[in-house]
Amino acid sequence: MSGLEVLFIALAVLGGASGLLAVTSPRVVHCALWLVVCLGSLAGVYLVLGAEVVALVQILVYVGAVVVLVIFALMLTRAPVDPSPRLNGPPLQKLAAGAAGLAVGGILAGTLIYAVGGTEVQVRSGQGGAKPIGEAVFSGWLLPFELLSVLLLAALVAAIAVSRRPADRKRDEDGTR
Amino acid sequence: MIHLLGPLVLASVLAGLGVYGILARRNAVLVLIGAELLLNAANLLLVAASTLPAGGLAALGQATGQVQDPLIPGQSMAIFVITIAAAEIGVALAIVLLLFRARGTVELTAVQELGEASATYTETPQTAKANGQ
Amino acid sequence: MTESAALLAVLLPAAAAVFGLLTKRSWAADWAVLGSAGALIAAIAELTLVSTDGPVSSIGLLGSAQLGSITIGLDLRSDQLSAVVAVMVALVALCVQIYSTAYFQGEGTAETPTRYRAYAATVSMFTAAMMLVIHAGDLVLLLIGWEVMGLASYLLVGHHSERAAARAAAVKAFLITRTGDIGLVLAVVVLIAGAGTTSIAELNRAAAENEIGHGTAVTAVLLLLAAVVGKSAQFPLHTWLPDAMEGPTPVSALIHAATMVVAGVFLVARMLPLFLTAPGALQIGAVLASVSMVGAALAALAQTDLKRLLAYSTISQVAYMLAAVCVASDRELGSGDPVGLAAPGVAHLLSHGAFKALLFLAAGCVVHIVGSTALADMGGLWRTHRSLAVLFGIGLLGLAGVPPFGGFWSKEAVLGAAEEAAHAGTWVGWMVLVAGVATIVLTGLYAGRAWSIVAMGRTQLSPAPHHLPAAMVFPLYLLAVPSVAFGVLLLWPPEVLHGLHIQPGTAITGALLAICAVAAALAAPRLGTADIATALPARAQTVLLDAFGFDRVIRVLVVRPVFWLATVVKAAEHDVIDAYVRATGPTTTIAGKLLRLAQTGLASAYAAWVFVGAVVITVAGMALV
């Protein structure tokens, strides 16, 4: 067992466990924080797999921006800090959700292992570096990349438009800043 | 050398947890956390696949199977997915905020107006029109 | 020349039918009379030309139809048989058309319109169809004419469609003849499959040279026989004919006495070489003919309605013709000249056409005077309308077969054929001979009875002599000529009647029996009973009047099962097939109620469906792969 694999297993266990806590914790803020841990450990996994840029983007965008957004949302919606029983649905719903989760995960794992299980790959250093990724994105993936920028802009505008208060809207319509 | 088995199992676990989170949670923000886990499972699969040479599994055992795809599709896609996820969570949280402002709660059970026999939905087409004006 | 004459004989009545309907109402009578007069002239020309120039085997009419592997030639043919019958048909048609112009005078009342234009056109159409049957060179073409005749018969029987009895009779005639016609259609199919052709000449040639397989021949002949029995109103498909008397009397004279009902006999005569290859089928035909002959004569004896009496006599007389052609195989075992073998039947066909049309038209005059068809309302014609009574009497004497009238010669020819077959030692010959002789007695009895009631009897007619239009009387004289003088024809017989042999023994016996029977019936009034039928026991009268209750038998054996089947089918339709249609409504409602349960409004539930669907599709995919 190589050092990479040991590192991977450690990160994977951390990621899986924190993911579990993120969806089961009774405290809302803890959920968000466990998500941070989970996403961070995933970034580590990306590094192990040689995807340096993806790992960095993961940390920057997910851990840095998305989770902060989530925590902001929790604060704005006056989420309780204490353990709350109302975070989950009734026990029956939890049971059904567990079954569905097990089924999806099981089937996914089963098919993936059946298809590519037992394959060993050589992780080449430098293949996920900034230079090759940059060349790829700005040559072959240029059009999707530009489309994504438009999507992001649209999402930005949409988020602002949706979340404005009626009072803000009225003020805009009256033309008084 | 590294086994692909590990990333695959981790991705499956994360997907299962994401599904559980989406289905079991009542709080809209926590449902979104489940969705994030699902997206990350997909990302992990993409990155794991990017370690394969050009030509995928079929090219693995062959002599020419060590050539890297110059477009690095797996990782590029992962970056795109992260971008889209950021956009999605932005709009989704804006909607959650709107819901909180309108109802004072972010519990999904409080917004069942679109269902059959909703307890809170009492509008008829006529009253809906009247309310809209 | 012969070709043109034959074509004109077919096409002139058809044209008259079309023009009669399309042009001015007041021209309808002109077209109808002109059409049939033209057909008569054409037919006479055809007969002359055929006698001098010989038969023509193919006259182009509609070209030919290529149907898959076989070619059906839609051509006419012309020989002595067709020419002679065509003359008879055209003559009767002309008489009937002239007669009808007077019979259908005026517009009628609102309740009972005469509808003369449609009537005349239909009669013209019928004439054209009959001419087509006579001249058809191919069974398919013959079938076309055969079916058009059936249609015309249906339309004309139901001409007074405001009367329920007429409608019922029309439907009955249509259904029963159609039952027989199925045989003709199937015979065509069998012959196409087994012999590869439907050309009559080709079939006859192949049959004469034993080229048609025995199975095919027997099947085809039996099927053809079914069509013959249906069209010619023979037992057991005879019951439509008496009911068909609901039609106007001229129609009865033309279609249900002189022409259409003898088409079956004509078909047998035309295809006799084919029939001769299946003697068993001919024997069946002879049995049916014998039963019809005697049974119908007995029924005629007790009828209380003049037209029904004549109808039963028609069945009986047509049975003579059929019996004459059906004993053909027993007469000449081996060496057969089909024309000669068919000659007795054809001869009776011709003479019967004349005297039966005369009888019906005279009966129409009587009905016109009396205003009723019931025998009970008639009487004293001799005193009030002597010339009409004489004409009626000529017809009756012809029917009874009293020498020297027409019916005598042809009937003796039939009996001669039967005797020849009996001498050959076959049971069929004996059966026909016995039945024929018995029927002579019965015919004489009912002919005499009709005379004594209608012409003698009490005077019940209005004292002032009812005036008869000339157009109604003239055709009677026209028809009386062949009725009286048919025997002259036998002195110089045309080729088609060369095979007639009148045996002195049967001739003298028949003549004596006929005269005695007529005399007995005529003497009856002087012995106290005005009507010889009343001398019979009451129960026998009822049975005979009812024609042995055969209608009831049909009702039990056919009508009730069909109605029962219809009930079953209706129930199946309503309770089984419709049930599925009706079930769609409730099923949709129930399904809708069930599916509404899934619409909870809870976002988590909708998401759950998505995942469940994904899992199910994946599992299904794995199971299938």
Automatic annotation (TrEMBL), chain A:
Residues spanning the membrane: 6-24, 31-49, 55-74, 95-116, 136-162
Its job: NDH-1 shuttles electrons from NADH, via FMN and iron-sulfur (Fe-S) centers, to quinones in the respiratory chain. Couples the redox reaction to proton translocation (for every two electrons transferred, four hydrogen ions are translocated across the cytoplasmic membrane), and thus conserves the redox energy in a proton gradient.
Entry GO MF terms: NADH dehydrogenase (ubiquinone) activity; quinone binding
Mode of membrane association: Multi-pass membrane protein
Keyword Cell membrane: yes
PANTHER family found in the cross-reference section: NADH-UBIQUINONE OXIDOREDUCTASE CHAIN 6
InterPro entries: NADH_UbQ/plastoQ_OxRdtase_su6 (IPR001457), Nuo/plastoQ_OxRdtase_6_NuoJ (IPR042106)
Protein's cellular compartments: Cell membrane
Main localization of the protein described in the UniProt heading: membrane
E.C. code: 7.1.1.-
Cellular component aspect of the GO annotation: plasma membrane
NAD in keyword set: yes
Recorded family membership: Belongs to the complex I subunit 6 family.
Keywords noted in UniProt: Cell membrane, Membrane, NAD, Quinone, Transmembrane, Transmembrane helix
Protein name: NADH-quinone oxidoreductase subunit J
Record organism: Kineosporia babensis
Catalytic reaction list: a quinone + NADH + 5 H(+)(in) = a quinol + NAD(+) + 4 H(+)(out)
UniProtKB/TrEMBL annotation, chain B:
UniProt keyword annotation of NAD present: yes
EC annotation from Swiss-Prot or TrEMBL: 7.1.1.-
Entries under Pfam families matching the protein: Oxidored_q2 (PF00420)
Transmembrane stretches, start-end: 6-25, 37-58, 78-100
Gene Ontology CC terms: NADH dehydrogenase complex; plasma membrane
Main localization (coarse): membrane
MF terms in GO: NADH dehydrogenase (quinone) (non-electrogenic) activity; quinone binding
Compartments (UniProt record): Cell membrane; Membrane
GO biological process, one term: ATP synthesis coupled electron transport
Cited PANTHER family: NADH-UBIQUINONE OXIDOREDUCTASE CHAIN 4L (PTHR11434:SF16), NADH-UBIQUINONE OXIDOREDUCTASE SUBUNIT ND4L (PTHR11434)
NCBIfam families given in the database record: PRK05715.1-2 (NF004320)
Protein family per UniProt: Belongs to the complex I subunit 4L family.
HAMAP family, per database record: NDH1_NuoK
Name of the protein in its database record: NADH-quinone oxidoreductase subunit K
Source organism (scientific name): Kineosporia babensis
Gene: nuoK
Automatic annotation (TrEMBL), chain C:
Pfam short name (any one): Proton_antipo_N
Main location, first listed in the record: membrane
All residue ranges annotated as the NADH-Ubiquinone oxidoreductase (complex I) chain 5 N-terminal domain in the record: 66-107
Compartments where located: Endomembrane system; Membrane
Keyword annotations: Membrane, Transmembrane, Transmembrane helix
GO biological process: ATP synthesis coupled electron transport; electron transport coupled proton transport
Residues annotated as transmembrane: 32-49, 80-104, 116-134, 140-157, 182-200, 212-230, 251-269, 281-302, 309-328, 357-376, 388-407, 427-447, 468-492, 504-524, 603-624
Gene3D superfamilies (alphabetical): 1.20.5.2700
Residue span, NADH:quinone oxidoreductase/Mrp antiporter transmembrane domain: 136-432
One GO cellular component, as annotated: membrane
UniProt-recorded Gene Ontology molecular function terms: NADH dehydrogenase (ubiquinone) activity; NADH dehydrogenase activity
Mode of membrane association: Multi-pass membrane protein
PANTHER family, per the entry: NADH-UBIQUINONE OXIDOREDUCTASE CHAIN 5 (PTHR42829:SF2)
Protein name (Swiss-Prot/TrEMBL): NADH-quinone oxidoreductase subunit L
Organism expressing this protein natively: Kineosporia babensis
